[in-house]
Design a protein that fits this description.
The chain is mainly alpha-helical and about 300 residues long. The chain has one domain. It contains 10 helices and 5 strands, in the order ααββααααβαααβαβ. The strands form 2 sheets. Strands 2-1-5 form a 3-stranded antiparallel β-sheet. Strands 3-4 form a two-stranded antiparallel sheet. Helix 4 packs antiparallel against helix 6. It is globular and about 65 Å long. The relative contact order is 0.16.
Length: about 300
């Protein structure tokens, strides 16, 4: 029954578009009629929302970690590049280490689940803010699985929890393998969800626009966003943070590979307006500067 309904929607779309009887020599391909600069607009909008999502998730995890430390009577100063724990090294004890340094990943895990549920609920909507939810979900995965992966390698962040659990090198390798496999699997699972964000701009996603869309909506914004984050945190950017942020590639590469060969997606026949969002740009740059100033001075908890 679903197949018949899907076929009906395709026929209805092609009929309204006036291309029902337009037969191409390459089945499944149709001539692109997108305005000049369409994919450039998509790239800039997605990059801005990537940065905004990072700021929100990063702020939430830092504050959650500071509150967790406060529960153990440990005062903290939250910086954009680090969290200073106002405690002597010899005063740390096992429970405090395990709880405090696992707070950020666990908070990210909870947020990731909630954001996935929210996104599925609004997946058919065409508002651009839906892309913010998608990028927040992706960053939540990175702050969860990515932090565990790099923590096991660099012995930082969640790596301290691993150390206090007395995992040896073999145990760390197993943890790295499991988290890596989990991120790749999630990437394959989330492919359709990422591609469905195409209904923000298009009535359908097919072989004509799908590859360009994947690169400009997903891949290019990842590289541009992380470059801006790294420049934004100079001179205090660390290789640990760069590598943690880079683990999102383990999610996005499967999305790009699988998404390139997925079947066409037909959304609806409603007209779309593809334009750069000045409001999102203003909000992102304002929060970016505010984040740098506030966390540059340091927020005490």
């Amino acid at each position: 029954m679903n197949r018949f309904y899907s076929a009906y929607r395709k026929i209805k779309f092609l009929w309204k578009k006036g291309s029902f009887f337009n037969i191409s020599s390459h089945p499944g391909h149709c001539k692109s009629t997108y305005p000049k600069g369409t994919f450039t607009v998509i790239f800039f909008n997605s990059t801005l929302l990537f940065l905004l999502a990072y700021l929100l998730i990063s702020t939430v995890t830092k504050i959650a970690t500071g509150i967790s430390a406060y529960a153990f009577d440990i005062k903290t100063v939250l910086y954009y590049y680090n969290i200073d724990y106002l405690i002597k090294g010899t005063d740390w004890f096992t429970d405090a280490v395990q709880v405090i340094f696992s707070t950020a990943p666990m908070t990210s895990f909870i947020f990731g689940i909630l954001l996935l549920v929210i996104y599925v609920k609004v997946m058919a909507e065409t508002g651009i803010l839906r892309l913010l939810i998608l990028w927040m979900m992706a960053h939540s995965i990175v702050f969860f699985l990515g932090d565990i992966f790099t923590g096991a390698i660099f012995n930082q962040g969640f790596g301290y929890v691993i150390i206090y659990f007395f995992f040896m090198d073999t145990g760390k390798m197993i943890i790295c393998f499991i988290t890596l496999l989990a991120m790749i699997t999630l990437g394959l699972f989330l492919t359709r969800i990422f591609l469905f964000s195409g209904n923000i701009y298009f009535n359908m996603l097919n072989s004509v626009n799908r590859t360009k869309f994947i690169w400009n909506q997903i891949i290019y914004p990842f590289f541009a966003g992380n470059l801006i984050i790294a420049l934004f945190k100079i001179p205090n950017i660390t290789i640990y943070e760069v590598c943690t942020n880079a683990t999102m590639l383990f999610i996005l590469i499967p999305v790009a590979i699988r998404g390139k060969n997925m079947q066409d997606l037909y959304f609806d026949e409603d007209p779309r307006t593809i334009k750069f969002s000045g409001l999102i740009a203003g909000i992102t740059f304002f929060l970016l500067i505010s984040y740098r100033i506030a966390f540059g001075i340091g927020i005490r908890l």
